[in-house]
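User: We ran a pulldown and think these components assemble together. Before we commit to crystallization trials, I'd like a predicted model of the whole complex to look at. Sequences follow.
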Amino acid sequence: MAEKVTILIDGTVHEVECGTTVAAAVLNAGRSLFRRSVTGAGRGPLCGMGICYECRVEIDGVLHSRSCLVPCRSGMEVRTDG
Amino acid sequence: MAERLMGDSVESDICIIGAGPAGLSAAVAALERASSVTVVDENVHPGGQIWRHDQIKGENPELRVLMNRLPRERVNLISSATVIAAPAKGRLIAETPHGATPISYQRLILATGARERFLPFPGWTLQNVTGVGGLQALVKGGLKIADQRIVIAGSGPLLLAVAAYLKQVGARVVLIAEQAPRRRLIRFGLSLFSNPARLGQALTLKRQLSGIPYLTDCYPVAADGEDKVRRVILQQGAKIWQVECDYFACSFHLLPNLELASLLNCGIEAGRVVVDNSQRTSEPDIYSAGEATGVGGLELSILEGRIAGYMASGNLPGAARLFRRRDRARRFARLLDQTFASTAVLRELPSDQTIVCRCEDVALGSLREHRSWKAAKLQSRCGMGPCQGRICGPAVEMLLGWQPDSVRPPALAARLDTLLLTAELAEGQNTQEWSKE
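Assistant: Here's a predicted model for the assembly, 519 residues in total across the polymer chains.
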C-alpha cells in the first residue's frame, strides 16, 4: 500500500496517498468546485497541466496556487471557494 | 513554509526548457560532448505530458531508460519551475516554490511541448468537464476514476490513447466521439501500413478499446448539468441525442506551446516555432525541438530533441546522422494535422451567451462587438486573466479569425518578488511595466 499523508481540505481532515496532487485529492474528497469565477460560477480543473488556472485554490496561505501542479504534503491546508 | 525572496541563480552553457521526451533526449545527446546541462521543468517530476508520473503505474519505463543516462552530478534539473520572463539576452527568470531564480545560458533549447486545444460549447465551463489529456493527468495525479462513467469527445489520437488508459484503470468509457470525418480517418489508417511499428501500436489500441463505440463525424453540441456535468448532448449528422456521464473529457487535438519562443523573439509561423534542419530557431543561440515545432508525436520529439542537443553541444556529425529519420517522422506530423483539423461546424457550437474567456467570463456575444484581439482585450479583458489567453486564444482565432497578440512579460501570472527581480535584471526597463499583474 502506498504511504499516506494527512491534509486539511476546507478544514476537514483527509488521508491521501503520498504523491497525490492537490487537485486529485480535492476531487477524491467529493468536491468539484475549486474556485468561483469573476461572475461567481463554480469551476474545477480543466487542463490538468498548469495552463488554464481553473483549479486554483489556496494552499498553506498562498492564494491562487495551481492545485494540479502541487503534490499533497503532510499537514497541508487547502482552501477552495466551495 | 519559509519563502525566500530569490532562488539561487543558475549559470549554464546549455539550458533546456522542458523535461519531456524532446528535452530529456536533448540533454542525453548534449552530454556526449558537454560536461553539464541545465533542465528547467514546470512539473514536480520529469517526463512531460506523455511520460507524466503515474500514481497507479509508477514511473514510465521509457523515461527510466533516459533518466538513467542523465547522471545527477552533470544534470541540474530544476523542477516546479515556470519561466516567466527573459529580461536580457542570455537571461531567463524562472519562478520556483523557493522564489524567483535567474538563469543564464549560452545556448538554449526550447522543448516546451504542446497543450490541448479547447473549443467552447454551451456547458463547457461546468465542473467535471475536462480536457482529454487533462483527465488523464488528473488520474495519473491520483484521481480515483474506477466505475466512473466517462464520455470522451473532440479530436485526435489522444482520444483513443486516453480511452484505453482509463478503461485499463477501471473507468467506464461510454463512448468516443471524434469530430473528424470518416474518410479522413480511413486515409490516416491506410497510411499506417507504411509504418509497421505504428500499425502495431494502432492494432494494440484497437484491441484494448474493444466494446467502446468510436463515432466519427460526431461532436458535442452541449454539456448539461447544474454545477457538475450530468450529460452530454452529441450530434452526428442529423442525429442528436444525450449520454449520461460523471466526467466529460473533451479537446480538439494539440497545439504547440509558443509563449516562451515568442517572448524570446523566435520566428513563429502557422502556429509553430520555425526551425531550420538543425532545429535552430530564427535566434542564433536558441534551438527548439518536439511538439513546439509542430505536433508530431513521440518519435519525432525524441529525434528533434537529440538533434538539438547535438547541435547545441557542437556535435554536428551526431545531428546530421538523424536528419533523414527526423524528416520521415515529420511527414507523419503533417498527416496528423490534416486528419484531425477542426471541421467548420465546430464554429457553430457556442451561442452568444457561451463563455469564451474562462478567466474573465467573457461571452462570445460581447466579443463580436470588437474588431480585433487588442480592442477586445482592452474593453472586455478577454485573454487578460491568469492564463493569459492560453485557453481562449486558440478558440478566438477559430471563432472570430483574430490572430493572437504578441506575448509580453510576464508570460504568466507571477508573484511580486519574481516581478521585482525581473525588473532589477532588466537594465533600463521601467519597473512599472512589469508590475501590472
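Chain B has three domains: 10-115+255-338, 118-252, 353-400. That may be worth checking against your pulldown data before setting up trials.

User: Thanks, that helps.
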